Amino acid sequence: MILGSYRRGVVCLAVIVFLCSFPLFIQAEEVEVDFRTLSQVQPIRGKGHRVPVNEYFHFEVEDLPKNMSINADMRGFMEFPTYQDQFDIYQIALHMEPTSTFSLDGGRQWLTDGFDGGLMDGLKMAYAPETGKVGVSLYGGVPRFTDDAHLAGVTNGLNAGWMLHLQQVEDTTGQLSLQYRKFDLERGDYRENDAIFAGLAASHQWSSLKMTPSLYSDVEYNVAGKNFETGAMGLDLYPHWRLALNFEGGYYNTDRQFGDVSLFDQYATDEMFQGRHAGEIKLGKGLRFFEDVAVQQFNVKGRGDKKGYRADGGVGHFWSAAKLSSTAQYYYADSFGGTVHGAMFEWLYQEVRKLELQLNVDVSTYSKITNQKNNAVSVVGGARYEFNPRCFLMLGGEFNNNAWFDEEARVTMQLQIGMEKLKKKI
After folding, report:
1. With 90 as the cut, is the pLDDT of residue 341 above it?
2. Nearest-CA neighbor of 287 among 328, 234, 336?
């Protein structure tokens, strides 16, 4: 009941904001409108078909008085023949920049706070001095996931935090983040309902050195759980303009006593360590080779220490005369859950701003810890025609053969109708 009232309240708020802001629209110098339809015809396991239809609407107004802008993103969903329906507002936010150093965002908005990304109903303020080396951001509001009752029994939550970031420092980036989360405002248990996170992300590139090495790191600490949840450090090297290398080490953990159980702590009883290497070589005339290898060490509930391996590699080629990109890739994964071997082939023809043809074929064989063995085949393809930068039509299809479907074929249609940004008053 509370969640239903909350959703209706958000919809009413969106309508009110839209109507109240309409007098500003006629003063705008840039307007952008997009309407997109995405639909599939899908078989139902057993018998029959279903047709889910998603409608997406985007509205953006810029260059309003006082350096204001408005963004709105909405989604409508209908499935036939069940006639299930849903309406969702992803974003409706007002952005203001009263001065060149201060900005304010209010409403339902996307929030990237250094720990993850998501939606929030609230306010965000940012101050970035023109001559200073440090900027600051403050935010607070209700997290968006409560609308879908992602957490059982949740009434309302709260996100609040601040971020300090370096600016105007050559070849260096840095951000210090602190966030407080309360998952249910009616519960007061600090250990079971509240979470405090501190994070630090930084990078530096030695652009004057021969291989232009770049060092980056990311650390996240759970204050309430008293444990490091993320600790990663990596190094990028460019020994030659044809060669790019990456080396990375990572540590991952979670607070297993916390009330909000994560997917990781469903299976693991201890931290996980990972070592990873990736590289790409440009071989000339549009040909490149790429690879990515990772080794993991973790503890599985009831099974002790286990190792995991991931690897993929392949070649890519761009035939400029035919405007055709081709990719052939092999991938492998081995963990306590099973082993997967697979190969992927992709072809992409792209005529500038007009026609695009794409075909993707994925074939794999797997063996699970439950003694299940099978093969899986997926073929996805389609054609996309662009009438103008804001309008296009895409028709395609998908075929799958796996343990769930002996044969499954889907037809996909996507239509976007948009209006380019107007450079004059409307």
Report:
1. yes
2. 328
Angle at 104 between CA 140 and CA 168, to 5 degrees: 100
Digit-coded pLDDT (tens) for 137-150: 999 998 876 444 44
Extract the tokens encoding 31: 């307007």
Q: Give which of 272, 274, 229, 271 is closest to 248, Cα–Cα.
A: 274
CB neighbour class for 146 (10 Å; exposed up to 12, middle 13-18, buried from 19)? buried
SS (H, E, C) 191-229: HHHEEEEEEEEEEEECCCCCCCCEEEEEEEEECCCCEEE
Q: Output the six-digit token pair for 292.
A: 């990515």
Strand residues in 12-127 grouped as ranges (E): 30-43, 49-64, 68-80, 84-96, 102-112, 117-127
For the chain, the distance separating the N- and C-terminal CA atoms, rounded to the nearest angstrom, is 42
Is the Cα torsion angle 141, 145, 148, 152 positive or negative in sign? negative
Other C-beta atoms closer than 10 Å to the C-beta of 199 total 20
DSSP letter for 145, please. Answer: G
Whole-prediction pTM: 0.77
Cα–Cα distance, 426 to 320 (Å, whole number): 42
Phi, psi of 129 (to 5 degrees): -60, 145
The per-type count for the chain, helices as H runs and strands as E runs, is: 3, 22
- Residue ranges of alpha helices (H) inside 26-157 are none
Cis-peptide into 81, omega within 30 deg: yes
Tokens (6 digits) for 53? 């239809």
